[in-house]
Amino acid sequence: MEETLQEMAALLRAIRENQEVTNAKIDGIELRLSSLEGEVKGVTESVDYLVHKLGEHDRDLYVIKTKRV
User: Angle at the Cα of 19 (from 15 to 20), degrees rounded to 5?
Assistant: First the structure.
């Protein structure tokens, strides 16, 4: 009976250690995800800005072309 209890205690310790490792990995993934979300937001803002500038340039080109005629 004592041996069974020791085996169960060892299994529980192993499970607990594995859980701590898994939690640490999840924390790392969450940090990387947060970083990627920030990068995606930055890229999105850059794309929005470029789309806006492209619209301005298209409008300016249209004005230049129509003035020449």
Answer: 120
Distance of CA 24 to the CA centre of its chain: 17
Distance CA 6, CA 13 (A): 10
How far is the C-alpha of 7 from the C-alpha of 11, rounded, in Å?
6
pLDDT in tens, the chain (69 residues): 889 999 999 999 999 999 999 999 999 999 999 999 999 999 999 999 999 999 999 999 999 999 976
Q: Is 1 helix (H, G, I), strand (E, B) or coil?
A: coil
| Rounded Cα distance, 52 and 41, in Å | 17
Any residues with CB less than 8 A from the CB of 62 and at least 6 apart, and which? none
Nearest to 66 by CA among 10, 2, 58: 58
